[in-house]
């Protein structure tokens, strides 16, 4: 926003900090519990940041809608209405994410299991911080705006006759308007207007509804067919660069040796006296039996 009073840069920053606190809390708890930290876990903060920022936008949008409808309501009423609007969607998204990652802990791969434990726990902490820490920040930001204070310094912004004579740059930075007058309250956001006046009536048209049902049916059918084609395993050639020498190696291996099946190895885990002839004969006999 161009207004130095209604600018919400600190509010957005606290939303990102909330996600960071969730990551720190999750990682600290999992490390304290002895869950191994694998390299794939390093990708978890990016997932948490995406979900946390999304929850932040939902909370801010609900707060602004509540304050626009009830400008004279108390802070307690505004916060209650904001939670009534935003908490449901935030809770549902968090539950689905947590459920998806905790189901992933049933896998047999230890690295995937650790990643799912760290990430699923981080989603829980992200929800807790959004509902507590960020809600408090919304109230503090609202009080700052009500007190007519600058977004950066939190100093009170007073517009007087002497300030109207200052330079345009000074007025823009310290008042929010080159004219030296405070900017007028903003109307409804352009994105809200678009969805309300154009997108909403468009998707509620009966022919568009029929088209949506048909498209969803085609998508569902394609998804079911795709699930039947999924095979367990991984093609190692997909992990190499296109120009790598590994690609023709795997091509030749698949062409000439695929009929022999996978390579089988035998590992002797105990201490063995290999200099003893009878022991060596026993090992060779074992290998022959396996063959």
UniProtKB/TrEMBL annotation:
Native source organism of the sequence: Agelaius phoeniceus (Red-winged blackbird)
Q: Which parts form a coiled-coil structure per UniProt?
A: none
**Gene Ontology annotations for the cellular component aspect, listed alphabetically:** membrane
Ranges of residues in domain SSD? 1-140
Q: How does it sit in the membrane?
A: Multi-pass membrane protein
What InterPro entries does this protein's entry cite? Patched_domain-protein, PTHD_SSD, SSD
- TM helices/strands, residue ranges: 9-38, 44-63, 83-109, 115-140
* Keyword flag Kinase: no
Q: Does the keyword Glycoprotein apply?
A: yes
The family assignment reads:
Belongs to the patched family.
The organism's superkingdom is given as Eukaryota
* Record's subcellular location: Membrane
Span of the secretion signal?
A: none
Q: What is this protein called?
A: PTHD3 protein
Q: Which UniProt keywords apply?
A: Glycoprotein, Membrane, Transmembrane, Transmembrane helix
């Amino acid at each position: 926003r161009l207004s130095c009073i209604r600018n919400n840069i600190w509010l957005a920053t606290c939303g990102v900090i909330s996600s960071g606190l969730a990551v720190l809390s999750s990682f600290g708890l999992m490390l304290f519990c002895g869950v191994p930290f694998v390299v794939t876990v390093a990708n978890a903060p990016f997932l948490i940041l995406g979900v946390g920022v999304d929850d932040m936008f939902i909370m801010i949008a609900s707060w602004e809608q509540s304050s626009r409808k009830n400008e004279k309501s108390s802070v307690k009423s505004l916060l209650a209405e904001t939670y009534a609007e935003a908490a449901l969607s935030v809770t549902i998204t968090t539950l689905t994410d947590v459920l998806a990652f905790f189901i992933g802990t049933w896998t047999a791969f230890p690295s995937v299991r650790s990643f799912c434990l760290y990430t699923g726990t981080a989603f829980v902490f992200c929800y807790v911080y959004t509902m507590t820490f960020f809600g408090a920040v919304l109230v503090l930001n609202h009080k700052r705006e009500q007190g007519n204070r600058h977004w950066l310094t939190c100093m009170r912004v007073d517009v007087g006759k002497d300030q109207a004579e200052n330079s345009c740059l000074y007025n823009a930075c310290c008042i929010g308007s080159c004219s030296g007058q405070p900017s007028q309250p903003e109307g409804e956001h352009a994105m809200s207007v678009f969805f309300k006046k154009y997108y909403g009536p468009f998707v509620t048209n009966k022919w568009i509804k029929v088209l949506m049902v048909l498209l969803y049916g085609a998508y569902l059918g394609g998804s079911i067919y795709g699930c039947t084609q999924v095979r367990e395993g991984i093609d190692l050639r997909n992990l190499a660069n296109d120009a790598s020498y590994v690609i023709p190696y795997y091509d030749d291996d698949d062409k000439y040796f695929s009929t022999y099946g996978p390579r089988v190895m035998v590992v002797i885990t105990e201490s063995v006296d290999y200099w003893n002839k009878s022991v060596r004969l026993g090992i060779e006999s074992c290998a022959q039996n396996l063959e």
